[in-house]
Amino acid sequence: MAGKLPTAYVSLLLIFLSAGTLTLVHAQKTWCVAKPSSSQAILLENINFACSQVDCSRLQKGGACYSPDNAINHASVAMNLYFQSKGRNTWNCDFKNSGLLTLSDPSFGGCQYA
Questions:
Q1: 24 or 53, which is more confident?
Q2: pTM score > 0.90 for this model?
Q3: pLDDT (tens digit per residue) in 1-43
Q4: Which end of the chain is more exposed for a tag (fewer CB within 10 A), N or C?
Q5: Rounded to 10 degrees, what is the CA torsion of 43, 49, 51, 53?
Q6: How far is Cα 103 from Cα 106, in angstroms, rounded to an integer?
């Protein structure tokens, strides 16, 4: 028995290490953006849905994220606002399979993604 750990200790060690890894991955900052292949109709649907749930005033004319004034940009900002407000769960970036999670901050110019 000398030099060997009982199976129960090995199991507890593995559980502890797994939980630590899961926490580390979950704690990493992520953003949600629109897939470039998404149709205009889906992007507009995503904007309408997300903005019915969160404050999208930064997308209004004169807002920090208004330019460029196109559906992919506005959808990405709106989808990310929704994603961040709902706890950054992967399922909050699905948007009928038109959302894409990224580890790179998509902020640009004066438009800061949350």
A1: 53
A2: no
A3: 455 545 444 343 333 444 443 333 456 899 999 999 999 999 9
A4: N
A5: -150
A6: 9
